């Protein structure tokens, strides 16, 4: 318990340090604290797969942090400023974009993320997919006026395409959620230069929906598609809301997940980037296919064989209040969108 408490406290400290710092060295130190803090949580199960995931995560994050430090040093050398917002030269700007892309798992630096997520537990996977992506996204937001729009748009389109394409042939739920995360990061990056607040709104809604799905599959103990067929026998109401949460993450119109995609497409059209908006809207159909398959397996498909064991709905299994709240919000936030958009 003490080790877990130290790791979680270090995660909070590293995230706070990065998002509140104005100096490149402090931001880098916060990212390093985050990396060191999450390593024991990934390796906690002492399984060879977990140790492999820990090693991959450490090597990638250390390389990305080194590249970020190199970009900030070159920027200080050229401009004489260590301030995060004073990123004026194209070379450090490009190096920083590559470093943040490695940390976020954007294409073509995405190879580590599905493997690390597959080797982690569900709660650690939730942290990797949400909390640990917030500090690098914040650095992108702070430096967004200085970044190259063409490079970011290319990374975003490639991430949306590959996130949908690679998720089609996966059977492991964690890998599907990893490619889903890559695809959603593409949606966030494509709009970050034009409307940074919209990127933050997308990140918050993505975090809420992903947390709802991770907590639900943690409660029902589902790790792959074949076991998802038996989910309705465990907690039927939660499985029904899981279907709505998955469709919300896919961005279907009546649900909360449609809000950020709708606003991003609208903003891209205003910026006269209709081609980019059309491409990412069509590429999101790939993601929609595997979300629909997950929802179909969870609610409609029956397992191929009958079981002689006691049905699990007869056992007393309680659902966490956080899980039920997040799944409800993941489906019903769209009518509140005018309030969300008008808030400062």
UniProtKB/TrEMBL annotation:
Core subunit of the mitochondrial membrane respiratory chain NADH dehydrogenase (Complex I) which catalyzes electron transfer from NADH through the respiratory chain, using ubiquinone as an electron acceptor. Essential for the catalytic activity and assembly of complex I. The keyword Plastid does not apply. It comes from Pitta sordida (Hooded pitta). Residues 21-286 form the NADH:quinone oxidoreductase/Mrp antiporter transmembrane domain. GO terms for molecular function: NADH dehydrogenase (ubiquinone) activity. Its main location: mitochondrion. GO terms for biological process: mitochondrial electron transport, NADH to ubiquinone. It catalyses: a ubiquinone + NADH + 5 H(+)(in) = a ubiquinol + NAD(+) + 4 H(+)(out). It holds the Pfam family NADH_dehy_S2_C. Residues 288-341 form the NADH dehydrogenase subunit 2 C-terminal domain. GO terms for cellular component: mitochondrial inner membrane. It is a multi-pass membrane protein. Belongs to the complex I subunit 2 family. It is found in: Mitochondrion inner membrane. Its EC number is 7.1.1.2. It is an enzyme of class 7 (translocase). Keywords: Electron transport, Membrane, Mitochondrion, Mitochondrion inner membrane, NAD, Respiratory chain, Translocase, Transmembrane, Transmembrane helix, Transport, Ubiquinone. PANTHER family: NADH-UBIQUINONE OXIDOREDUCTASE CHAIN 2 (PTHR46552:SF1). This is NADH-ubiquinone oxidoreductase chain 2. The chain crosses the membrane at residues 55-74, 94-113, 150-169, 176-195, 201-223, 235-255, 275-298, 319-341.
């Amino acid at each position: 318990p003490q080790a877990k408490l130290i790791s979680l406290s270090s995660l909070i400290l590293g995230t706070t340090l990065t998002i509140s710092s104005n100096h490149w060295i402090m931001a880098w130190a916060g990212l390093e604290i985050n990396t060191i803090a999450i390593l024991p949580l990934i390796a906690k199960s002492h399984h060879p797969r977990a140790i492999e995931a820990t090693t991959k995560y450490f090597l990638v994050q250390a390389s990305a942090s080194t590249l970020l430090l190199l970009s900030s040093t070159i920027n200080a050398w050229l401009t004489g400023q260590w301030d995060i917002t004073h990123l004026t030269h194209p070379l450090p700007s490009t190096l920083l974009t590559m470093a943040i892309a490695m940390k976020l798992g954007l294409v073509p630096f995405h190879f580590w993320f599905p493997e690390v997520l597959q080797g982690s537990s569900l709660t650690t996977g939730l942290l990797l997919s949400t909390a640990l992506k917030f500090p690098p996204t914040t650095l992108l937001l702070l430096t967004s006026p200085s970044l190259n729009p063409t490079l970011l748009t290319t990374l975003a389109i490639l991430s949306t395409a590959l996130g949908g394409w690679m998720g089609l042939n996966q059977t492991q739920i964690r890998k599907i959620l990893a490619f889903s995360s890559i695809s959603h990061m593409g949606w966030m990056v494509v709009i970050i230069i034009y409307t940074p607040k919209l990127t933050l709104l997308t990140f918050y809604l993505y975090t809420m929906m992903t947390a709802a799905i991770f907590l639900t599959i943690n409660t029902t103990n589902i790790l792959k598609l074949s076991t998802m067929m038996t989910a309705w026998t465990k907690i039927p109401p939660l499985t029904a809301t899981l279907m709505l949460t998955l469709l919300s993450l896919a961005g279907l119109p009546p649900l909360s997940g449609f809000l950020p995609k709708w606003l991003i497409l609208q903003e891209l059209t205003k910026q006269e980037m209709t081609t980019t908006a059309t491409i990412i809207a069509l590429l999101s159909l790939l993601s929609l296919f595997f979300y629909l398959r997950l929802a179909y397996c969870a609610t409609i498909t029956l397992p191929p064989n009958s079981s002689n064991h006691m049905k699990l709905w007869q056992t007393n299994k309680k659902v966490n209040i956080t899980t039920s709240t997040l799944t409800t919000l993941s489906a019903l936030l769209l009518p509140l969108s005018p309030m969300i958009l008008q808030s400062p």
